[in-house]
Amino acid sequence: MNIRSLGYAGFTAKDLESWRTFANGLLGAQVCDAEAPGVGKALRLRLDAKCQRMLITQSSEELGTYLGFEVEGRDALADAQRRLAAAGITVQHGSPEEAVFRGVDAFFRLTDPMGQAIELFCGLADDEQAFVPSRAMGGFCAGDLGFGHAVLMTTDFDKSKNFYCDILLFRVSDFITRPNRRLFMHINPRHHSIALSESPVRGIAHLLVEVNEFDDLGRAYDVALRDYPDAITSSLGRHSNDFMTSFYVRTPSGFALEYGWGGRLVGPHWQPHELFGPSLWGHDRRAGNPESRLVAGQQRQFAFDQGIRAPSPGGPMRPDVPDAH
């Protein structure tokens, strides 16, 4: 199975206008109105030349999410279906109207072991118009790397790991064992497009979008501090695995969005390794439980005492950059 990237994410929202304000003001995405087949009002969020990277459908129901993974073309899509069938996994093909809404040639859907909706698609179209962010900025790191990454909470870590690694053929980047198990996986040079976090609940932990310029991260953080102070779930910090400098903020749909800059790239000879903890500094998770915050603080203190730091200069890292030292 040859998955190329995490192409898009779709989810529901009770209040589309709150999302429009959030996307225009904090994200800097280009917001386009759309109609979801059989549902009604929706928004398409653009981060690059593609017609969409996030689809938000108005609904009074609980949050429903789906993640779209891109394959090379229709032949690759058919091959993926055969491989899934051999693994005992059935799929449901999307209708032509649903494909038009997504801007893809074709797609089918399935669910992972935790019930997370997954879509495999081919042919995500470029928009007829050039990408125009909602505010002055240097754009997003997307394109062939996909729009960013998704972190999923799982109540059966081993079963989820087997699904993504053995069936979808994601490759392990690195992992953490304390205070809970976390696994980071890649399918292209982006350090991770999917990660798993062992949890008593299941669902989306967060989605990431990455900007091209450091100043745009700082300006988004200013917006969050000014307009969404109570929604900031993690302060500004830098991760130990992908060296992403980022903060986390709760979206109008309730899940967290990581807004980051400077993500590490990995090469074909990458070797997985265990991390001391998730962050070199910062990332105080205000919404975390006391035990997890205590462990995170101890891990940051270890990085402080050992002088562990990311390579310089910042910005997207070349493949196989040396480990943090």
Summarize the structure.
The chain has 325 residues and is of the alpha+beta class. It has helices spanning 16-27, 74-86, 96-102, 157-167, 214-227, 290-306, and strands at residues 3-13, 30-36, 40-46, 54-58, 65-71, 92-93, 106-111, 117-122, 148-154, 171-176, 182-186, 194-198, 203-211, 232-239, 245-250, 256-261, 273-274, 279-282. Strand 10 and strand 11 form a beta hairpin.
Describe the protein in words.
With 325 residues, this protein is α+β, with helices and mostly antiparallel strands. The protein has two domains: 120 residues, 2,3-Dihydroxybiphenyl 1,2-Dioxygenase, domain 1, CATH 3.10.180; 164 residues, 2,3-Dihydroxybiphenyl 1,2-Dioxygenase, domain 1 (Roll), CATH 3.10.180. Helices cover 23% and strands 34% of the residues. The protein contains six helices and 18 strands. The strands form two sheets. A ten-stranded mixed β-sheet has the order 17-10-11-12-9-13-16-15-14-18, with helices on both faces. It starts with a strand and ends in a 19-residue tail after the last helix.
Give the SSE map:
Elements: E1 3-13, H1 16-27, E2 30-36, E3 40-46, E4 54-58, E5 65-71, H2 74-86, E6 92-93, H3 96-102, E7 106-111, E8 117-122, E9 148-154, H4 157-167, E10 171-176, E11 182-186, E12 194-198, E13 203-211, H5 214-227, E14 232-239, E15 245-250, E16 256-261, E17 273-274, E18 279-282, H6 290-306
